[in-house]
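Quick one, T. Sequence first:
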Amino acid sequence: MGRVPARGTVPDWWNQATRALARRDPVMRGVIRASKGMALKSRGNAFQCLARSIVGQQISVKAAHAVWLRLEERLGRVSPRQVSASDLTELRGVGLSARKAEYIMELAAWFASRAGRRVHWPELTDAEVISVLTERRGIGRWTAEMFLIFCLLRPDVFPVDDLGLLRALSELYGSEKGKRSAAEQFGEQWEPWRSCATWHLWRHLDPVPVAY
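Structure tokens:
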């Protein structure tokens, strides 16, 4: 039975993906060279990865990081057990909105439930992971895609609802490519390594890697 990649794990397909993308696309080659020595790394813990994504919804990366650090300080360890032992007031005290606090509480309860414990993430396809996760309140397709990239290290995820991705496409390939309707088709040239392409497009905007 497969396990979620350990925290800090670099995908075993990473070098192959960067070489393939650099050969195919001169623009991507330049972005990859600028990010030399850096790579996507797994967040490791499935619950924490999803909780971090919920924290980061609709706020800046800097703000999300600050809230997460306060959450860790308050709980000691952000786990289903620790979250379930707290209450909404306590979670809101670290800077979470009422809605996000509810989502994380419900997510913790689901992970601790029999149904949640029975899910073996590495055995599911990308589509199955998205289907399971989007049944949970507060988790939409974008959050599920961040989970696929940053927790499961799936190689071919292309989150066309991500504003950073669309902005990078616009800056590097022209404004038309930065439109969602065009981005999806444009990204087909990077299959089956679209997660790697996405990660490097993010690096174009911010050289410091961010993990959700």
